[in-house]
């Protein structure tokens, strides 16, 4: 047998061994992710570093679905006597421990996405199209022209409007869509935190779906590079490899499921509800017990299906 043929056979043999080993390895793969949407503000109208969007994402054991749970930012965390949107900023380890106490699931990894990140990601994938069943109109949206130069004569607030139907979102308007919380007094029309949560769930659903369906190698590489260089997280290269090995074979079947946590004002029917009173002089949501057991049970049962 000639040397070139022997080399080829040896190479193929090594590939077979490698694939066999990879297939049978027991990987430690992250399944529980906490996604924090941060809208850092330091201007005349608002100064804050708290998180506006809080999403618990679970990858199923078969790696064929991702379940998303949005938590209202005003949910009261009894152990620290703060709203959960005030848990950040802190060390990732402390954040993971705090949210694990709240939802009853170990948080493996954290991803912090700022509004600027959201703008740039949307542009990287060519924007997204979101369908609105009711119009979104906010006549008290903070005017960036005034924030940039209060002496310019620009009004403090401006009106933003998204009609019923398909709305294309990119860096020019996605921040306003996410931030707006005064569009209506009724949650069903998109106003208040409940309406904003529903809007954000819809946006992330469309955003994640478009990213997952991306098949353009250059776009995938650009997203990977952007994620690593611009977004705060604690996902390692080993995590990427392990997730890729498990998820890529099922990528065409991967489904996103939005799980809505019953939230409102009725403690008999809602898992998370407003207690009709202030706590520490703050408007909050609570669960029926300080240990959040009803919320933990709801999430645990939802992960079974």
UniProtKB/TrEMBL annotation:
Q: Name one Pfam family in it.
A: LytR_cpsA_psr
Q: Which residues cross the membrane?
A: 6-25
| Gene3D superfamilies found in the cross-reference section | LCP protein
Q: Which keywords accompany this UniProt record?
A: Membrane, Transmembrane, Transmembrane helix
Domain called Cell envelope-related transcriptional attenuator: residue spans: 51-211
Which family is this sequence assigned to?
Belongs to the LytR/CpsA/Psr (LCP) family.
Q: What is this protein called?
A: Cell envelope-related transcriptional attenuator domain-containing protein
**Taxonomic lineage:** Bacteria, Candidatus Shapironibacteriota
């Amino acid at each position: 047998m000639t040397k070139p043929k022997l080399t080829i056979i040896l190479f193929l043999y090594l590939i077979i061994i490698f694939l066999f080993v990879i297939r049978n390895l027991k990987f430690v793969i992250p399944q529980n992710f906490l996604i924090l949407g941060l809208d850092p503000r330091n201007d005349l109208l608002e100064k804050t570093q708290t998180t506006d969007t809080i999403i618990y994402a679970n990858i199923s054991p078969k790696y064929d679905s991702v379940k998303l749970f949005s938590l209202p930012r005003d949910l009261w965390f009894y152990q620290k006597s703060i709203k959960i949107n005030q848990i950040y900023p802190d060390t990732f380890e402390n954040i993971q421990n705090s949210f694990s106490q709240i939802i009853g699931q170990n948080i493996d990894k954290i991803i912090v996405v700022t509004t600027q990140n959201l703008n740039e990601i949307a542009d990287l994938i060519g924007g997204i199209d979101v369908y609105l069943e009711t119009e979104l109109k906010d006549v008290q949206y903070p005017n960036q022209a005034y924030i940039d130069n209060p002496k310019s004569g620009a009004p403090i607030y401006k009106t933003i409007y998204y009609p019923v139907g398909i709305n294309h979102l990119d860096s020019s308007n996605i921040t306003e869509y996410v931030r707006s919380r005064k569009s209506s007094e009724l949650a069903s029309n998109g106003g208040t935190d409940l309406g904003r949560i529903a809007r954000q769930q819809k946006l992330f659903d469309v955003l994640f779906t478009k990213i997952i369906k991306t098949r353009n190698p250059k776009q995938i590489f650009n997203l990977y590079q952007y994620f690593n260089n611009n977004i705060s997280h604690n996902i390692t290269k080993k995590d990427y490899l392990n997730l890729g090995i498990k998820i890529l074979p099922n990528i065409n079947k991967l489904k996103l499921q939005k799980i809505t946590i019953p939230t409102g004002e009725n403690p008999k029917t809602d898992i998370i509800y407003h207690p009709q009173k202030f706590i520490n002089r703050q408007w909050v949501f609570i669960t029926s017990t300080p240990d959040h057991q009803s919320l933990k049970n709801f999430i645990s049962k939802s992960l079974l299906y």
